[in-house]
Each structure stands twice: as structure tokens, then as C-alpha cells.
Amino acid sequence: MYRMKVCVCLILFFSLGTAQLDYRDALEKSILFFEGQRSGKLPPNQRLSWRGNSGLQDGSLAKVDLSGGYYDAGDNVKFNFPMAYTTTMLSWNTLEYGKRMGAQLQHARAAIRWATDYFLKCANAAPNKLFVGVGDPNADHKCWERPEDMDTVRSVYYVSPSNPGSDVAGEMAAALAAASLVFRSVDPVYSKKLLGNAVKVFRFAVQYRGSYSDSLGSAACPFYCSYSGYKDELYWGAAWLLRATNDISYLNLINTLGANDVPDLFSWDNKYAGAHVLMSRVMTLFFFGRKDKYTPNYRKWYVDILCHTFERLVPLPSKN
């Protein structure tokens, strides 16, 4: 998914770099890109007709159905960690700018749902297991082929109480919670289902703490190691659940997860900066005017990330 995002950025760069800026075309191509990464049985309204069904037996090695979701890039592995991050960010953008997306709003929702339908399978396929990936990344990277023709082993990976993955579970919970807000008004039944599963997956992440990199070894590293640890994903997931539920218990948890740390860069691995910005919005929307121990922080979180980002982009002049 990291390489997916790079390709989307390139589409935007070349589209916006022309003499006449066509933001509408750039947005359409960015969302259309997700359809090219789809795994599973494609729908009748698939716009990229050169893509066919693939990965229909994903999960069969574990006797579960894990078809669907997105391939990571030019390869045919499904890494849930970056896939969930991408889904969370697409949901956040849809929440913020959906009213300005025009005809692309329905395609953005479809892109989100393609991922969340898959995450629901991952969360409910077997008791005490959260499935987090399909495809042997080491074998897959040795053979580049169309997903319709792939013949590499479709290994199945999961985290469990004895082999935890708080980072990937926290990110999947964030994706489900953020998506529940996207569908809240247009499909309340689906939205409720997403939120219920977000709560369940997040509870799993908190109760059985540990990094999925440690549990999965070479299936995660060096491809998508959780270099920043798992506390940032717990913070990120709790922030999205706080926004989706207004449940103060998530705020109490956030205060134990480094909420006052100075934010760093924002990526599929490190979520602190994005979580700070999200929490500044949540605190403003839902807790504005409160006079208690929570209110002093929201402005600090917001200013910290803005100043930190500005200093990286525009170095301050030397004091000498």
C-alpha cells in the first residue's frame, strides 16, 4: 500500500503539473487506482475492465474465506497493516471533503467498502484469531506476475492472544471506526456493523499487547515492520473510536499512550502526528468549553504538529 500511495501521488503530481490544473481529473484517477488493486471477485460495475477475478481461494489454507481486499502494489500480497492505514486515510479524507467530491464520492465509498468488507472477514473468520495478511511476501517478490495468473503459495497470517499484534489490530480498528462515520448517514446498518467490529478488534489489541512484527517475523519484516512500536496505533485507534462513539473511556486510555509526546512524521508506521491532529479536532468538536483536565491539551497537540511540520518544510533562519 505504501507503493500504492506513491503511485497515487505521482498521478496527482503529473495531473496537477500541467498548464491547466484539472483537480477533478486528478481526483478521479486517484480513486480509480484502487480498482486496479482489487483482489477477489470483481463487481459488475468494475471500471477497469482489463482486471479479472483473482485470489478467490485466499484463506483456504486456514479453511476460512479471506477473498477481497487490496493487493499491496505491483505484487500480489495483502498486507493488512498498510492496507488498513490507507483505508483510514481515505475515510478521513471522505469525511473532510466528501461534499466537494461530486460524482467521485460514490467511488470513494466503494473503495472504502472494498477494504472494510475484507476486514470484517478477517475479524470474524475464526475465534481468537485476527487475520492480518495473505500471500508469502518472500516467494511473491521473486515472481512478478498478474494476480489473475499467480501461482505462488497463498500463505495465511494471523495474530492471536499468544502471538499478539496490537499495531495491526489497532490500525484495523481505526479503519473500521473511521469508515463507520463515512457510512453513518447513507447506510446506518452497515455503519453500526463496522463500529461494533471496530470496538471488538480494538479490545483485542488492548487486551493482548505486543507487536505483530515480533509475532509474524519474516512475514512482516523487512516489508512492513512496525518500527515505531504499537502504542501509536493504540492511540490512533482510540482516537477514531472516541470520535465515533464519544465514549470518554477512550480518552482515558489515550492519556496513557504518549498523547503528550512531540509528534514526528506521519506514515503507515508512525501514527502520532495524525492522531494529534485528529484529537485536536475531536476535542474541539466534542469537548469544547469543558473545564477539566482534558481541555488544556487539544490546542497543544494541534500547534505541535503544525509547527513541527512547518520546521521540516521551511527551515527556520539561523539565530546567528
From TrEMBL:
Residues 1-19 form the signal peptide. Its EC number is 3.2.1.4. GO terms for molecular function: cellulase activity. It catalyses: Endohydrolysis of (1->4)-beta-D-glucosidic linkages in cellulose, lichenin and cereal beta-D-glucans. Residues 23-289 form the Glycoside hydrolase family domain. Pfam families: Glyco_hydro_9 (PF00759). It comes from the Eukaryota. The keyword Signal applies. Transmembrane segments: none annotated. InterPro entries: 6-hairpin_glycosidase_sf, 6hp_glycosidase-like_sf, Glyco_hydro_9. Keywords: Carbohydrate metabolism, Cellulose degradation, Glycosidase, Hydrolase, Polysaccharide degradation, Signal. GO terms for biological process: cellulose catabolic process. PANTHER family: ENDO-1,4-BETA-GLUCANASE. This is cellulase. The gene is LOC102583923.
